[in-house]
Specification:
By secondary structure, the protein is of the alpha+beta class. It folds into two domains: 199 residues, Peroxisomal Thiolase, Chain A, domain 1 (3-Layer(aba) Sandwich); 139 residues, Peroxisomal Thiolase, Chain A, domain 1 (3-Layer(aba) Sandwich), CATH 3.40.47.10. 39% of the residues lie in helices and 26% in strands. The strands form three sheets. The protein has a nine-stranded mixed beta sheet, sandwiched between helices. α6 links the parallel β4 and β5. α2 runs parallel beside α8 and α9 packs across α10. The radius of gyration is 20 Å and the shape is globular.
């Protein structure tokens, strides 16, 4: 059995109120761009988000029209800031003595790429053993943490002495575009920055938050064009369709049914941890699965306090959920480009 012993998170120091970001976005519009101003206001006020964090200390300076940061500028910023947040999350998660026992490190990010990468920078900064096995999960989108956890689970099941450290860092705000098309208005309104570390092993003598159960995956090719994440000269470009909530709503019940059939879990006893990709997605899931909002509160509260931090968001949800008194089985799911749906079952200890 694989255990998640600890989850710890880290956030940039700079926090923005959603209403302030809306004012900034609208300040970049021309006087005649009435539709865009109305759309920005509508999306922001219905986003379910109160505050977001960013490594960018002044959005107003960073995105002035005519001074669009190029991809190399954005990747340089990622290299500077991702390591800081990753180290902070790890220091909260694992003691110095246990750090020296780490056998495997897995890094997760879809917002920054380089070689040597984040995993090597973390090993150097944390003075980790040089013989650690390294794995990176890159550019997969908001469901990537599920892959990191799956890989960690497979390592622990195949190696009884494994001690796995997962570090997930997403700096979505460095890819904001000063563009007025619907995709960029939506992305600039939803996404934010954050990091988390997870410590896993199969040692049942170490206090734990969760037992890891089973993993599930489904690819909806009908939604291949509805969510995408592509490179450009000015950063990573997001494609987000209004049909995403409907696509998820159409298949999430089937995915839950498959999980229940495979694991023998009872739906009535499940707790819920969904990636809060947006308030419309959470409402669609709650509607089709007949889950009251209060039973998805960890997802709603994470969205309200931090926005959509891409893949790392689900780890914030699981950490928040771990603090309530309810024990027992958990069904967790996330979504991303493809359109991909990933899910897992856990047992909350």
């Amino acid at each position: 059995m694989t255990y998640i012993h600890q989850i710890s998170t880290a956030l940039p120091e700079t926090k923005y109120d959603q209403k302030d970001i809306l004012e900034f976005m609208q300040s970049t519009l021309k006087e005649e761009e009435h539709r865009e101003k109305k759309l920005m206001s509508l999306i922001s006020k219905n986003s379910g988000i109160d505050t977001r964090h960013s490594v960018i200390k002044n959005l107003y300076d960073y995105f002035l029209e005519g001074e669009t940061p190029q991809i190399e500028n954005r990747m340089s910023l990622f290299d500077q800031e991702a390591l800081k947040l990753g180290v902070e999350a790890v220091r909260k998660c694992v003691s110095e003595s246990r750090l020296q026992e780490i056998t495997h490190i897995i890094t997760v990010s879809c917002t920054g790429l380089s070689a040597p990468g984040l995993e090597i920078a973390l090993m150097k900064e944390l003075d980790l053993p040089s013989n650690i096995i390294r794995t990176t999960v890159n550019f997969m989108g908001c469901y990537a943490a599920f892959h990191g956890l799956r890989i960690g689970d497979q390592i622990c099941k195949s190696n009884p002495n494994a001690r796995v450290l997962i570090v997930d860092v997403e700096l979505c705000s460095i890819h904001f575009q000063n563009e007025k098309d619907d995709d960029n208005i939506l992305a600039n309104t939803l996404f934010a920055d954050g990091a988390a570390a997870v410590y896993m092993s199969n040692d049942d003598t170490i206090p734990s938050l969760y037992e890891v159960g089973e993993f599930f995956s489904k690819l909806l090719l009908s939604g291949e064009q509805d969510m995408a994440w592509k490179l450009s000269t000015t950063g990573f470009q997001m494609r987000l369709s209004n049909y995403i909530p409907k696509l998820i709503e159409s298949e999430i019940a089937n995915m839950l049914s498959e999980a229940v059939a495979q694991t023998g879990l009872e739906v009535e006893k499940l707790q819920w941890a969904f990636h809060p990709g947006g308030v419309r997605i959470l409402k669609a899931i709650g509607n089709v699965l007949e889950i009251p909002k209060e039973e998805m509160q960890a997802s709603y509260d994470t969205l309200a306090g931090h926005g959509n931090m891409s893949s790392v968001t689900i780890l914030f949800v699981l950490l928040l959920m771990s603090k309530n008194e309810n024990k027992g089985p958990v069904f967790s799911a996330g979504f991303g480009p493809g359109l991909t749906m990933e899910a897992m079952t856990l047992n909350k200890l």
